[in-house]
Amino acid sequence: MIKAIIFDLDNTLYWDERSNDEALEATCHVASNNVSTISAHKLKHDVIREAEQQFKASLFFDFAHSLEITALETLWARFDVENNSMFDMMRTQAPIYRFNVWNAALQSSGHVDPDLASLLATRYLQERRERAFIYEDLFETLTLLRSKYRLLLLTNGTPDLQQEKIDSVPELASFFEHIVISGDFGVGKPSEAIFHHAIDLLALELSEVVMVGDNLYTDILGANRSGIPSIWINRSNSSKPEHIFPTHEVMSLTELYPLILSLS
Question: What do you get for the CA distance between the two ends of the chain, in Å?
Answer without folding.
Answer: 5
